[in-house]
């Protein structure tokens, strides 16, 4: 396949302005975004993305999970399309670039091809996957998981948020439930551009992460049940303190992850304490453990050690426990040819690059099961993400989008 000329580049100013325009929807309180999945703000962001896609001559498809597929014709309509995208939903205290850079980077590819009057043999489809974050409705990467056959559609519709609202009902409420069967689309390849969400590229002053693998993950929801009682008049030996249990499990998760350094991480991010009153000993604690590693064996060992530790902690405190896996994916190895297209593009364009294992999960991790897939990463300031202070430079966005452009266009094959 003829590679695009090294002078073929995207329009960095237009990409940057488009990202800043999207950032106005669902603003956070500290400069980032709160555009959680299936909220009115998510719906508003979808409408804006659809408007831009239609202005670029794309035809919008929508599946039963609300995933958006903006289709650009190819010279050969029977050729399998090349898909490119990520997600527009954010964390409650999210940044402007997590996910958004990958969706709007895909749109910028189309806009640039339109500017240059370039046709490709294979159609190109810019994609916005519903509920990548999993913060309002667990698990993460929900729609791409249904698309890849990992989750059943009805099971996904039944996921509930903290207020007890169903995913399926909320998708209907915001008016973004499509008719297309999830997963029917066949892809020649899928590419995703994403900020690194870690410090490696910036620390090493490298422009591009060529993502060869993604680490695996377990999300374990733990419910500890003790007994509510007065914080003043209940003698210490008689307490059944679920809050203390949660604190000890939090320390346990950290210690276990530290035993497998540098190839493991672990923390507790979501916590609900009941009744959460200043002078009541917590009778119940519900929280989610997030452990990750590039190695399946490490991941499983960590899980086993943590579950055994929870039993020991609860016995000592006379509290009961339940552990429910609410999210999991095995470590991912991305497609060698797609990874090579990314690496060759960075080389051709003169961007410094290095192979990288993704610390975060991405829709690409599931789509890799049903199509040849690879990811492009760019640095982010201090490696910070899932924080409103998340920041990248326009140059980093340009480097990432240029490499994405070349990888996608080379795979879609330019028609002279
Ligand atoms: O959890 C993750 O890794 C992703 O940000 N949803
Ligand atoms: Mn993301
Ligand atoms: Mn994220």
Automatic annotation (TrEMBL):
Keyword vocabulary terms for this entry: Hydrolase
Top-rank taxon, per record: Bacteria
Peptidase M20 dimerisation domain ranges (all copies): 215-312
Protein EC: 3.5.1.87
Gene Ontology MF terms in the entry: N-carbamoyl-L-amino-acid hydrolase activity
CDD domains reported for this sequence: M20_bAS
Uppermost EC category: hydrolase
InterPro entries, sorted: Amidase_Cbmase, Bact_exopeptidase_dim_dom, Peptidase_M20, Peptidase_M20_dimer
Regions crossing the membrane: none
NCBIfam families on file: hydantase, PRK09290.1-3
Family assignment from sequence similarity: Belongs to the peptidase M20 family.
Designated name of the protein: N-carbamoyl-L-amino acid hydrolase
Organism name: Nitratireductor thuwali
Lineage summary: Bacteria, Pseudomonadati, Pseudomonadota, Alphaproteobacteria, Hyphomicrobiales
Gene from which this protein is expressed: amaB_1
